[in-house]
Write a structure and sequence with these properties.
It contains 6 helices and no strands. With 168 residues, the chain is mainly alpha-helical. It has 2 domains: 95 residues, no CATH class; 70 residues, no CATH class.
């Protein structure tokens, strides 16, 4: 199957905005991701350590109603399913590690894991992930979210030469 062209970024941006609006209309909440991981980790902690762990102030806030009753867990399941379906329909579904010629598979995976861990830690400190802070907070005109967006763009701009060297 021949792969199709990528979506126009402006149309995709409008689509994301409509999804955010629909999330507010249907679920009464905005978009985000890090809260889902917190719920899964809290449920895993209770599964491993027993129900005594559920009383911990670090775990208790994420256990209201079970793992599949959390809006963000369901949202992320939908994102994963939609991503696979989109890749399959566009003819791009295959397993690969995208990397530059000067970076091995192990180095790319290690860099991805380290970046993911740093983003997760940052999301907990910021009380929200990039999608929650930028999309939801930005749409609500939160000053902190707009500062966060500016910080993300500035950091990406400053670090892009490093990343570019790894991909050339």
């Amino acid at each position: 199957m021949k792969s199709r062209a990528y979506a126009d970024p402006y149309i995709a941006g409008v689509g994301i905005g409509l999804v955010l609006l629909a999330a507010y209309a249907v679920a009464g909440r905005g978009l985000g991701a890090s809260g889902a991981f917190s719920t899964v980790v809290a449920a895993g902690t209770v599964a491993v350590r027993g129900h005594g762990a559920a009383a911990s102030p670090a775990v208790a806030p994420y256990l209201s109603g079970g793992i599949l009753h959390d809006w963000l867990v369901l949202e992320l399941c939908g994102v994963a399913l939609g991503g696979f379906l989109s890749a399959w329909l566009a003819g791009r579904f295959h397993f690969a590690v995208e990397r530059g010629p000067h970076l091995g598979v192990r180095g790319r995976v290690a860099a991805s894991v380290c970046g993911g861990v740093l983003m997760g830690i940052g999301a907990k400190f910021a009380r929200g992930c990039t999608s929650g802070q930028a999309l939801t907070g930005g749409a609500l005109l939160s000053a902190g979210s707009w500062l966060f967006i500016a910080g993300c763009f500035a950091t990406a701009y400053l670090l892009s030469p490093v990343a570019r060297r790894l991909w050339r």
